[in-house]
Amino acid sequence: MQEYERNDQLDVIIPTHKPGPEFAQLLTGLNRQTKAPRKIIVINTEEQYWNTAWEEAYPNLSVTHIRREEFDHGGTRNFGASLSDAALLVFMTQDAVPADNNVLANLIRPVAAGEAAVSYARQIPKKNAGLIESYTRHFNYPPKGRIKSRADLPRMGIKTFFCSNVCAAYNHRIFDSLGGFDAPVILNEDMLYAEKVIEADMSVAYVADARVYHSHRYSGMQQLRRNFDIGVSQKQNEKIFSRYPSEKEGMKLVKNTASYICRNGKVWLLFPLFWKSGCKYIGYFLGKHYRRLPGVLDRSLCLNKEYWKRMEKQLPDKI
What we know:
The protein has helices at 21-31, 53-57, 75-82, 103-112, 131-140, 153-156, 172-177, 189-199, 220-236, 238-241, 247-263, 270-288, 295-301, 305-314, and strands at residues 10-17, 39-45, 61-66, 88-92, 97-98, 118-124, 146-148, 167-171, 204-213. It is α/β, with parallel strands linked by helices. The protein folds into two domains: 10-213, Spore Coat Polysaccharide Biosynthesis Protein SpsA, Chain A; 220-310. Strands 1, 2, 3, 4, 5, 6, 7, 8 and 9 form a nine-stranded mixed beta sheet that branches. The protein starts with 9 loop residues before the first strand and ends in a 5-residue tail after the last helix.
């Protein structure tokens, strides 16, 4: 068993942007947990959209406002971590909602017990999720949990590094020792951190009984933009993704989803499946080759536009 902190004191860190009613559900759900957070640390952009009533309703809520152009997937979360001295950090997104009152207690168990350096929760679809999105959640977040280590790389490949900051717990001491999240980073800060954990001969836990409601209803263009950012992220981290490519996993998802649709007798859903899958691939392909694209084009294709604005100022010759 690896040596970890045995203190299970935890803080929850959430970056927000124009949070709405769903965020209020998240705050309520967190404060009903059997293992309640000591503090809920929010790093918020667009201060004018912040509801100050939340701070009055939840005394353990602390908010720091930043400018939108300052937000970074890795850097902002690192900043949130610097505001905490808890042994355990739980990162969440504003659109995740706990499915029950035991999410945090279950999530932190393998980290507090010294079985993993980071653990992530199971994402289950919301009520308005369609058949395709529901199956995607099941594909990426199956009902059985597991602990992943370096020994899984030959069989699982890129899936060994799969992790999601939609809801994930981190050993704070190890987080600091590994340098936290990469920053600046366009996307995938959680997977890039998980890779560091695995390469340091530690483990990543997927905790299936820690469940949060989280799903999306992306259009084809939204899928294209998101996957463009994924492609850029993989290009910028070629040392990792060239050794463990993700294309086979993407094809497996499409094939399995098509089979699931047919088994359920809803063959008309094959068209939106192939359309959105095509958009994903086009976005991913363009992202992987972003350096060959005109600057105006790749900046218009991306989802995370603030990243490019910041990088153009900081490292104009390296992007």
